Amino acid sequence: MNHFSELKLPETLTKALQAMKFEKPTPIQEKAIPVALTHRDLIGCAQTGTGKTAAFSIPMISRLLKNPHKTGLILVPTRELGSQILEVLTKLTLFNPELRSILLIGGMSMKAQIKAAQAKPRIIVATPGRLVDHLKRGNVTLSSVEVLVLDEADRMLDMGFAPQLNEILRFLPKARQTLFFSATLPSNIEKLSARYLRDPVRVTVGAVSEPVKKIQQSVIQTLVAKKNDTLLDELNLRKGSILVFARTQSRTDRVARYLTEYGLKVTRIHGGRSQGQRNAAVAGFKDGKFRIMVATDIAARGIDIPHIAHVINYDLPQVPEDYIHRIGRTARAGAEGEAVSFITPEDRQQWREISKLLERSGAKVAVQ
Ligand code: ADP
Ligand code: MG
Questions:
Q1: What spacing in Å lies between the alpha carbon of 272 and ligand 1's midpoint?
Q2: Is the dihedral angle over the CA atoms 150, 155, 161, 163 positive or is it negative?
Q3: Distances (CA, A) of 215 to 157, 252, 330
Q4: Which among 79, 159, 72 has a CA at the least distance from the CA of 124?
Q5: Of 251, 237, 236, whose CA–CA distance to 313 is shortest?
Q6: Fewer CB within 10 A of the end CB, N or C, for the chain?
Q7: Ligand nearest to the CA of residue 52, numbered in listed order
Q8: Which residues contact 319 (CB under 8 A, 6 or more apart)?
Q9: Angstrom distance (rounded) from CA 27 to CA 29
Q10: Alpha helix segments (H runs only) across the chain
Q11: Whose CA is nearest to atom 18 of ligand 1?
Q12: Mean pLDDT of the 360-367 span
């Protein structure tokens, strides 16, 4: 397929894609959209930054335009990813203002969300915790949901979100289409997903759990006591926007403070900050006010900031798959990117697990 027009999408949607300058579908879009348009359940796996958002949004919008009384639900692990998806939906429905999307995420006013939910939105984008709150209070009904999407599905099904997802499942119609998307699908997900999907079609681009080839990966062997110096050196060597991952909220604060004291333009994001602070951090990093953002794994999944040139793992991620997501914040949509990870002697086991995951994909990691 060379052009979106071959998909026979509603004309308004095709026009919106033109306005977004999306000409050709990406490989995952090319494979997943036709399947999703047949109303089959689907598990879609493709590398970070390859257009999975549109791969589920296009068929969802297309279906909802044909069924004016039906609605869609998109569940995401973080508020920032929710906001980003809402922006994409808004662009895709530029010529269908009647197909309104709303965002139900934590950290924002309940009252405004209740009002938005009452105005008959057609697509709800939500984080599970806040959606459950609304469901319990009777603010939202899901009885007209025809399409359910779990973005970052493996994260959504893991321990942290399972209780809320089960709660949400009780409110959803059984007759619905369910779409799962992620760049990583560990094998234990298969079993968990059976509760949600019916005879799903699997659509995979590249090997499962493979980092983007364009990312130049390297590791630097250092010591815990030397990490800050190593970080300063790396930041000075590199040009462009840099995302630095630390393990905990307090370590994120500490690293950001250290860099600020050196006069660098740094912002930080983690779950302990207010939503206003989180929004300001992402906005400032996006528009270049801050060249560096220090983050916990809250920023590991889904965030699409095209100009991120480098990802630095100041601390390694706890879960091997998160390595692929973290470094996938760079090299988006075919761009170039670099990722460097600091490894101390204490990290050996963790790095071995990540290496095992990478070995399967044949990715090369330079050791410094
Ligand atoms: P993923 O969810 O796979 O990580 P995203 O959906 O966030 O990727 O998309 C990554 C980037 O690619 C976004 O900036 C998006 O605008 C761009 N993009 C997606 N699909 C297309 C397309 N068909 N043509 C051009 N750019 C696209
Ligand atoms: Mg995504």
A1: 29
A2: positive
A3: 27, 24, 7
A4: 72
A5: 251
A6: C
A7: 1
A8: none
A9: 5
A10: 11-19, 27-37, 52-66, 79-92, 110-118, 128-136, 153-157, 162-171, 188-193, 227-237, 249-261, 275-286, 320-327, 348-361
A11: 51
A12: 82
Q: Give the residue whose CA is nearest to atom 1 of ligand 1.
A: 49
Same fold flag, 4-205 and 215-367: yes
Residues with CB under 6 A from ligand 1: 22, 25-26, 29, 46, 48-54, 304, 306, 332-333
**What is the residue extent of each domain of the chain?**
4-205, 215-367
pLDDT at res. 131: 98
How many other CB atoms are found less than 10 A from the CB of residue 368?
11
CATH topology of domain 215-367: Rossmann fold (3.40.50)
DSSP 38-103: TT--EEEE--TTS-HHHHHHHHHHHHHHH-TT-EEEEE-SSHHHHHHHHHHHHHHTTT-TTS-EEE
User: 152 alpha carbon to ligand 2 midpoint, in Å?
Assistant: 7
Do 60 and 72 meet the contact criterion of CB atoms below 8 Å apart?
A: yes
How far, in Å, is the centroid of ligand 1 from the Cα of 279?
21
Residue 190 has pLDDT above 90, yes or no: no
Under DSSP, the state recorded for 182 is: E
**pLDDT of amino acid 1:** 63
The whole model's pTM is what?
A: 0.96
Counting ligands in written order, which one lies closest to the CA of residue 57?
Answer: 1
Q: What are 1's two structure tokens? A: 């397929």
Q: Is the domain defined by 4-205 classed in CATH 3.20.20.220? A: no
